[in-house]
């Protein structure tokens, strides 16, 4: 699949992007190495490259750096941090390792969805080379082929495809996508907190149910008061039964939290990574030639070839950014699907029928207690 070469083209279809071959990133269960030198490895599985490969985080880091050299004006996805924030998480903790795996999964998903980057030789080397020599082979590849401007057959003629107002269009698109980036960032943070609260609620419900079970299983007899003893026996059985209800509610709250994290938070994070990579691609654009052109004519004559190359690169960067803008706009409908899934999850969670049943049972217990006391 290719992006339309014409800036005014419709660009790729969303279905084509989503159907693009993806890569599954899995954490290898056992850490490699000895003592404090142990490291985490990740298994990459792809239906296109057939055989799975093992990669360290340092392999991903080199791959990312070389992609930035190869595709200067493209949306190269961001990488997750190598280490946890000091005082927040231990970089050896399971939680941090899982978060980093998710970040690497988003990185590879966006790389493989990109119509230009996914078919590059550098990606093929990363997905097929032997683990011990993958970094060497990737560096050899980038040294041999250079950046996209050098290898693209269109680089010298892209100016023909540029509309007269391309600079204005680029600035308008930049402002729109930066505004979108800010909004998506806020939405992701809110949904992440709500998903976390669902998991915390599950933990509290489970603990409450265990305490109820312990109370309902208490074998000690109350003082022999004529009206209290029979009543307590009945209530103890009811309380023990309620503990199972709370266990079920805890499981449903945990399921809702996990579902929202996978179907909402992660997908918003993926879209957020896409927007961030666009912003950074904008920042890597070449500087205008104004200062260079203000030099004396004698020096301009000496640097004529450099000026021509810089001008061509400038137009090529605009051309690439226009294609990247098409990719971003192609992904925009996903936000409706993601937020729609979140709303449905919240609605389902708030109309849980078991809560009504639990209230009815509590009223029944209290009603029996009042009746027996009388």
Describe this structure in words.
The chain is mainly α and 374 residues long. The protein folds into two domains: 138 residues, PX Domain (2-Layer Sandwich), CATH 3.30.1520; 181 residues, Substrate Binding Domain Of Dnak, Chain:A, Domain 2. It is built from 13 helices and three strands; from the N terminus they run H-E-E-E-H-H-H-H-H-H-H-H-H-H-H-H. The radius of gyration is 29 Å and the shape is elongated. A hairpin with a 7-residue loop joins strand 2 and strand 3.
Briefly note the CATH topology name of the largest domain.
Substrate Binding Domain Of Dnak, Chain:A, Domain 2
- Proportion of beta-strand residues: under 5%
Give helix and strand order, one letter per element, not per position: HEEEHHHHHHHHHHHH
Helix content: 55-70%
Q: What does the main sheet amount to?
A: 3 strands, antiparallel
Q: Give the count of helical stretches.
A: 13
